[in-house]
Amino acid sequence: MTNDYIIFTDSTCDLEPEYADTLGVSVIALEFTYDGKSYCDGTGMSYKDFYNLLREKKSVTTSQINTGTFIEKFEPYLKEGHDILYIAFSSGLSGTFASAQIAREELLKSYPERKLIVVDSLCASMGEGLLVYYAAQKKREGLSIDELAAWLEAHKLNICHWFTVDDLFHLKRGGRVSAASAVLGTMLGVKPVMHVDNAGKLILMEKARGRKAALNSLVEHMKATATVTENDAVFISHGDAIDDANFVKDLVLKAFPVKEVRINYVGSVIGSHSGPGTLALFFWGKTR
Fold first, then answer.
1. 265 alpha-carbon distance from chain centroid
2. For 164-186, what is the mean pLDDT?
3. 219-236, pLDDT tens digit by residue?
4. Model pTM?
């Protein structure tokens, strides 16, 4: 069977577990640590509690998925005769992709007859989730594992990421932006507007005067580059800012006749770096 393969991704896709199940996708969790205790991304601590910790500037650390975990998760499926396509968190933001590559090399020594393909999404949060969503659709359309891997490589840079944060404290603390860039976060009334570039890294693009201006800017960037149709989905993730997420959703629906606008939290792993108040918009476009 050409379709006898499993799509895997990781929890930084920020898709609800139930939704990932409906897509037929298996999700491997990254972990975060607070006060000496480790938690799997999305379980063990509510998002409300998590973001309240960040508001208090509590220290939270994160860790990538290690090679041993990948082997543990992948091997039972290979042993049962399934092939695997894993869509990884951006290599520009994490070493998770590299760990998966090492696991792949090890596993194929034991299962040389199987296929285990690792794709660097160059995406983050529900941008990664949106790429996974399209991958699941393509699999349902009948694409083989090799065809789908080629499609992902050809189209992953069509997934556009635009987001704003309340301030750059958390991104600076996690080393995701420079100290110089983080000065913006202390400027009264100025909100950074950022995106994920073709290397899968966070780039500061502009500064907006106030929160509403920043939110409107996300949709203006979408108007400039989106190629969505009524059959496409648009995803929005937020750092405990549901009212702002709904505000952006309404702007999107006024501008585009899309089938679905899905909203979910920025998960604990990415959220520990982006902070409370993060608002991110993801869509299919001509270019990032």
1. 11
2. 65
3. 999 999 999 999 999 999
4. 0.94
